[in-house]
């Protein structure tokens, strides 16, 4: 199959471009040396530059330019996740084009409009989760769990994801006969596990047609109902327990309060609600440019301050655990599976997709390896557990 990638032999730079580029290269090299990265070095986390125009592209367009340049074959790195660990641990991302035009425009748009409005709610399902069940079946664990695994006592991805599912069920104090609502249920890994292992009846909400299709096949014979529905249009039923695992990143800060109000409305007075979400250490106005454009349209990572504000006088925080360091090995397990199955996926998805997807897995995985991004599991109750909540680890 012929690749659509640009030729890695770029057009030669003219005299002026060479002069400017040498200065830009020295400037970037000086910054990279601070985080122990070399240009065309020999170590696994060093970058190999194939197109000298990379430097001006990064300085002009920041993370968006860096990611697009990788997709187009302008640079490579043997251990791409470790490159991002070095960059983010050293806060180099704050130095390189922190106020580039693309970042400013995205922040302005996010401030003016509601990027996660009801009218746009199915966009992430169509553009990401509906890419193809074959892709996700080959990349994920056997239960199709597309969120941070729990590697405390696990050696394989299957074991780590099952441990995470059981951790969630234990934190919810599930008992036979209870009802569970999963907001953003994916292919149904949590509700299937909860129905099989804890004897509960479940309803799952998702905005992905492909997830509903495969999820219903996987959960046949179990007391589980899938709904292709946005959380804002769901009402009229009370549940003993509610969980939302890896969906809150699609809600958007303008809708956080609405999401929490909906969760509170659907929760029984003696119920528990578990929120599992990727989180940011600071409050931002918009998501990361490259990931929003190519992976998760309208994605947004909440801060603890925003979650706290959204639940004020609405829910009582009973428990908080940060399991973010478990997501780096999870993403690396995804990458290993993706690479192993790529020969049979290649014809359908193509080489350009491979570079995009690898960049996605390594850049986000590296952000967790650097502890730059977090994963919080938060347990809430409507009125506070009178005898105190029993934490599970």
Written overview of the protein:
With 393 residues, the chain is α/β, with parallel strands linked by helices. The chain folds into 2 domains: 15-110, no CATH class; 119-381, 3-Layer(aba) Sandwich (Rossmann fold), CATH 3.40.50.150. The protein contains 14 helices and 9 strands. The strands form 2 sheets. It has a 7-stranded mixed β-sheet with strand order 5-4-3-6-7-9-8. Strands 1-2 form a two-stranded antiparallel sheet.
CATH homologous superfamily placement of the largest domain: Vaccinia Virus protein VP39
Strand order of the largest sheet: 5-4-3-6-7-9-8
N-to-C span: 49 Å
| Known CATH architecture of the largest domain | 3-Layer(aba) Sandwich
Secondary structure tally, helices: 14
Specify the biggest β-sheet: 7 strands, mixed
- Main structural class: alpha/beta
CATH level 1 class label of the largest domain: Alpha Beta
Strand fraction equals 5-15%
As for the number of domains, it is 2
Q: Which regions contain 5 or more consecutive residues with pLDDT less than 50? A: none
What's the overall geometry?
globular
Mean of all residue-level pLDDT scores: 92
Number of strands: 9
H/E series, N to C? HEHEHHHHHEHEHEEHEHHEHHE
The CATH topology label of the largest domain is Rossmann fold
Radius of gyration: 22 Å
Q: Helix share of residues?
A: 40-55%
């Amino acid at each position: 199959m012929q690749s659509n990638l640009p030729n890695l032999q770029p057009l030669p730079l003219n005299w002026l471009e060479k002069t400017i580029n040498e200065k830009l290269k020295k400037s970037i090299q000086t910054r990279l040396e601070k985080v122990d990265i070399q240009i065309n070095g020999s170590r696994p986390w060093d970058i190999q530059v194939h197109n000298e125009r990379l430097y001006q592209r990064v300085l002009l367009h920041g993370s968006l330019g860096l990611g697009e340049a990788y997709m187009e074959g302008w640079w490579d790195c043997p251990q791409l996740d470790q490159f991002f660990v070095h960059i983010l641990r050293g806060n180099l991302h704050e130095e390189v084009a922190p106020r580039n035009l693309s970042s400013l425009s995205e922040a302005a748009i996010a401030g003016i409009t509601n990027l996660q409005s009801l009218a746009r709610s199915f966009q992430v399902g169509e553009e990401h989760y509906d890419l193809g069940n074959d892709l996700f079946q080959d990349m994920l664990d056997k239960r199709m769990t597309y969120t941070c695994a729990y590697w405390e006592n696990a050696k394989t991805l299957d074991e780590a994801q099952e441990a995470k599912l059981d951790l969630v069920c234990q934190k919810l104090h599930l008992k036979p006969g209870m009802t569970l609502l999963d907001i953003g249920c994916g292919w149904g890994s949590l509700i299937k596990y909860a129905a099989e292992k804890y004897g509960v009846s479940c309803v799952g909400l998702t905005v992905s047609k492909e997830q509903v299709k495969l999820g219903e096949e996987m959960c046949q014979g179990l007391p589980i109902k899938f709904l292709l529905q946005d959380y804002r249009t769901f009402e009229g039923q009370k549940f003993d327990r509610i969980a939302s695992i890896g969906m809150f990143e699609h809600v958007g800060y303008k809708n956080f309060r609405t999401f929490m109000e909906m969760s509170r409305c659907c929760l029984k007075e003696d119920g528990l609600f578990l929120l599992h979400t990727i989180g940011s250490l600071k409050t931002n106005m918009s998501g990361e440019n490259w990931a929003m454009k190519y992976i998760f349209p309208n994605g947004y990572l909440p801060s603890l301050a925003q979650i706290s504000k959204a639940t004020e006088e609405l829910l009582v925080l009973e428990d908080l655990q940060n399991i973010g360091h478990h997501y780096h090995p999870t993403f690396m397990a995804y990458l290993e599976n993706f690479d192993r199955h790529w020969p049979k996926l290649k014809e359908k998805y193509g080489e350009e997709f491979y570079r995009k997807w690898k960049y996605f897995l390594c850049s986000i995985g590296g952000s967790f390896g650097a502890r730059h991004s977090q994963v919080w599991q938060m347990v809430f109750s409507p009125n506070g557990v009178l005898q105190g909540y029993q934490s599970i680890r």
